Amino acid sequence: MNIHKVSIAVGLIIALSLFLGLVAHADEADQATTISFSEPVQIPGQVLPAGTYVFRLLDGDLDLHVVQIFNADRTVLYATVQTIPTDRPKATDRTVVALAQRGTGQPDALLRWFYPEQTTGTEFLYPKQEERELGQDKQQTIVADRPAVSNSETAGVGN
Q1: What percent of the chain has pLDDT over 70?
Q2: Contact 90, 127 (CB under 8 A)
Q3: CB 158 within 8 A of CB 108
Q4: CA distance 127 to 85
Q5: Which helix or strand (DSSP H or E) is residue 59 part of?
Q6: Is the pTM here over 0.90, yes or no?
């Protein structure tokens, strides 16, 4: 009788781990990532107020690198932004963003976003003059507070 209960328990554990594995990778194609900013942040064409946003690749199309930015529950689309691929030397198990620290009174500008476990990320495109200015600003790379454990990673930015 005890062997039967152990077999059932082991079977349930295996089934549960397979199910959770599928759930954990459900949004990998569109790289949906939840990022919280404690201060306003500039993206191409606008400034996002402090808050929590979902960044995702449009239709999971890695060739076009179009990023959509939604509110936390994905009911409001704030921006659809053209980006280009950018590489980093080593992947991490956490979401990583790079910001240009602007002068006093100006929000930091989002430059790059890397999905966990990926060496290729997205670089946000700004108008040429603004891009030159951002290139002269001090840049800061911010790593998510915790490693990726689900299909959406929370990164606390600007703390």
Answers
A1: 64
A2: no
A3: yes
A4: 17
A5: none
A6: no
